[in-house]
Amino acid sequence: MSRRYDSRTTIFSPEGRLYQVEYAMEAIGNAGTAIGILSKDGVVLVGEKKVTSKLLQTSTSTEKMYKIDDHVACAVAGIMSDANILINTARVQAQRYTFAYQEPMPVEQLVQSLCDTKQGYTQFGGLRPFGVSFLFAGWDKNFGFQLYMSDPSGNYGGWKAGAIGANNQAAQSILKQDYQDDISREEAVQLALKVLSKTMDSTSLTSDKLELAEVYLSPSGKVKYEVCSPESLTKLLVKSGVTQPATDTA
Known about the structure:
Blueprint: H1 2-5, H2 19-28, E1 34-39, E2 42-48, E3 65-69, E4 72-78, H3 80-101, H4 107-120, E5 132-140, E6 144-150, E7 156-158, E8 161-164, H5 168-178, H6 185-199, E9 210-217, E10 223-227, H7 230-239
Antiparallel strand pairs: 1-2, 1-8, 2-9, 3-4, 4-5, 5-6, 6-7, 9-10
Helix pairs in contact: 3-4, 5-6
Subcellular location: Cytoplasm; Nucleus
Protein name: Proteasome subunit alpha type
Pfam family, one: Proteasome
């Protein structure tokens, strides 16, 4: 059935499906997993880096985590070149808002404006949907800490804990069992590492296969976005019992 209706994003199949958009979501299923967890004192984002070759120079910048504004960051799963375009769009939107109103852009408004752009690519001929899903973590004065998940269709939703990328169904089911509403940031980090260790394809978790970032409030009340260094990440992995101390030289 799909053969006749999947050549364009603008054609509905008789069952009411847009196959090209579904295929874009399928492409994300092959990307490295990213997990976001909302805690009472912050938001934790953890991502799996796909190391395709030993010869690759590991990037000094982060591969899965991106800062959009001082109060918003995101984790990415999917085609990175598509993600870069959308991240730049989001950054410009956030700065335009700050320039116009002299205050940070509300997190949901920023997510919605980006999803409007994504939605446009599913409705006009000659365009293909962005093959990328996002987890947005942020804080604003209206709703405090927030976690949003969006996919290539332009849909988005607020989540307490979510997973995108490879094995996201398995990760979601573990999160559903183990997540608690009053979880602290430290516990959220432990939970995210535990989920990733169970759902990742590789046998051992090491700091060069992972990225961890947190959005939280500093004691002065300022929103902070912090990416965990490889050394701190190795210590966290050992502490959570996911990896053995001897394996950090591997």
